[in-house]
Design a protein that fits this description.
This protein has 98 residues and is mainly alpha-helical. It has 1 helix and no strands. The radius of gyration is 32 Å and the shape is elongated.
Amino acid sequence: MLFPPMLGTHPGTVQLSLPTVLFQASDTELNAALNGALIQLARLENVSLIRSGIPEIQSMNAEVLSLIQSHAEPAAFLIQSHATFQMSWNQVVLVAMM
């Protein structure tokens, strides 16, 4: 019985491997520390940008919500009148078929 390959064991996948020589281990740790510091810095910068935009997004949401509500009542009336028309039309067709 053949089983599917285990994750990460077939070609085309990212395969974890240990450094082949000793100096690569220290370089790998140094890169991880530097990249982690850069990512942390970018996250802190983005927090202030995101927080400054929240009130603007909320006001846009309020405008969109009021627009939707202003269109909801006429749409409900049109849907109801169309449903009434469709029911009466179905009765006409049914009588004509008999």
